[in-house]
Write a structure and sequence with these properties.
215 residues, Pnp Oxidase, Chain A, nine-stranded antiparallel β-sheet, 6 helices, 9 strands, 33% strand, globular, binds flavin mononucleotide
Length: 215
C-alpha cells in the first residue's frame, strides 16, 4: 500500500556548507540563509515549525511565522491561551525548524522561550492589517468551538463594535514569544546522503562552538 511513498526520494547537491566559509556567528549565518530564502522567493520563507513539550513530556508541533529576530532570539506571535502558549508557560523549552526545500536547506534551533515585553507585542499588533487584529479578538485559539458560524458571527459583531474606532486595542491574551537559541544547526543536502551539518552550541562565556555532525 505504501509502495509509492517509499519510492519518493531525490538526490541533493545544489550547494555545500563548509566550516571555512560558514560564518563563525550562527546568527549571521541564519540571517544569510533566511535572506537567500527570501531572495529566492520561496513561499512562506519565514514559516517555521515550532515544537513544544507539555508537562507529561509529550511533544507537539505546528507552523508559526517568524516576525523578527536579532541577537536576543527569534520572535513569533500567537494567542497566549493557545495550546502552544500553555505548554511554553509550563515548560519554556522549544525547538524551531525551517525547511527551505528548493535550497535543500534545513535549520534547527533549540532554546528557551520568553514572552515579549507587552510594549513590543503592542507595536506589532498595531502594525497588522485591521482584519488580523479583529481575528485576534475573534478566535479562542485551540479551544473547541461549535461550528464555523461561531467565528463568523463573532467577527461580524467585532467589525460593528469597532466601526469608526481607529485604534483597535490589543487583546491581553495575544502577543509574542521570543525563542532564545542555545543550539543552531545548519543542514545542507549533499550527494549520496553525505549531507553537511554544522552544529553551533552556545558556550557559558557567550561564544559559539561549531562542530560538524555526521549526516
Ligand atoms: C503557514 C502557517 C503560518 C502560521 N502562522 C501562525 C502564527 O504566526 N501564529 C499562530 O498562532 N499560528 C500560526 N499558524 C497556525 C498554527 O500552525 C496553529 O494551527 C495554531 O497556532 C494553533 O496551534 P496550537 O493549538 O498548538 O497552539 C500558522 C499556520 C500555517 C500553516
Amino acid at each position: 500500500m505504501n509502495r509509492d511513498i517509499a519510492d519518493i526520494r531525490r538526490e541533493y547537491g545544489l550547494m555545500d556548507l563548509v566550516e571555512t566559509l560558514a560564518d563563525s556567528d550562527p546568527i549571521r549565518q541564519f540571517h544569510l540563509w533566511l535572506e537567500q530564502a527570501i531572495e529566492a522567493q520561496l513561499p512562506d520563507a519565514n514559516a517555521m515549525t515550532l515544537s513544544t513539550v507539555n508537562l507529561a513530556g509529550k511533544p507537539s508541533s505546528r507552523i508559526v511565522l517568524l516576525k523578527g529576530y536579532d541577537r536576543r532570539g527569534l520572535v513569533f506571535y500567537t494567542n497566549y491561551q493557545s495550546r502552544k502558549s500553555q505548554e511554553l508557560e509550563a515548560n519554556p523549552w522549544a525547538a524551531l525548524n525551517f525547511w527551505w526545500i528548493p535550497l535543500e536547506r534545513q535549520v534547527r534551533l533549540e532554546g528557551r522561550a520568553e514572552k515579549l515585553d507587552p510594549a513590543e507585542s503592542e507595536a506589532y499588533f498595531h502594525s497588522r492589517p485591521r482584519d488580523s487584529q479583529l481575528g485576534a479578538w475573534t478566535s479562542p485559539q485551540s479551544s473547541v468551538i461549535l461550528d464555523r458560524e461561531v467565528l463568523e458571527r463573532k467577527f461580524q459583531e467585532l467589525e460593528e463594535k469597532y466601526t469608526g474606532v481607529e485604534v483597535i486595542p490589543r487583546p491581553e491574551h495575544w502577543g509574542g514569544w521570543r525563542v532564545i537559541p542555545e543550539t543552531i544547526e545548519f543542514w545542507q543536502g549533499r550527494a549520496s546522503r553525505l549531507h553537511d551539518r554544522l552544529l553551533y552550541q552556545l558556550q557559558p562565556n557567550g561564544s559559539w562552538q561549531c562542530d560538524r555532525l555526521a549526516p
